Every structure is written in C-alpha cells, then in structure tokens.
Amino acid sequence: MKEQLFLEITEAKYLNDFRMLVSFNNGESRLFDFAPIVDKYPVFAPLKDKNTLRQFHISDTLEWCNGTIDIAPEYIFEHGELVDDESALPVAAEAPMEYEK
Asked: What is the pTM of this model?
C-alpha cells in the first residue's frame, strides 16, 4: 500500500443489491455493502432506493443527492472487504454503473 496523506476515492462501480466496488488513491479496492448502514443510520435511508444509490458522484468521497448525503472514504476502506482480484467478484445481477471523477 502506498503512503498517502489523505485517503480519497478515485473510482466506484455499482455492482448489485447494495454493493459497490470502490477504489482508492492508495491503489487498493474494497467491496462495500451499504445494506447494513441504510437501516442503521437515518441519513442513509434514501439509499434504500437502489436507483438513488446508483446515482452517486465522486468528489474524493461518494456523494448522493447533490452532496446532501456522503460517506467518508475511511469508513468504506475500514469496513469494506479487500479486493485483490476484481475478476473474482460475483457477476452483477443488475447492469453495473461506473462513475469516475
């Protein structure tokens, strides 16, 4: 892992259900499942709608709804599952969506 002053999200792909593949400026990627947090934290409740979840924007972090909802890159990094081989990820049941800066 390269040493970085600030951890930033560089790329994200919606996979399926509530899962996204998130890449960081240190070269690592994490598989992150939003399902546990959309029920636990009221601020993320709008993301229960998968269409809303899929409409994200990257600005060093992930944002939704014109920036009214965001999540810290550190949270995704710490709570996501390390992905060494993206080809080993399950095939998406829904069409993947990609957004880059």
From this structure: 0.81
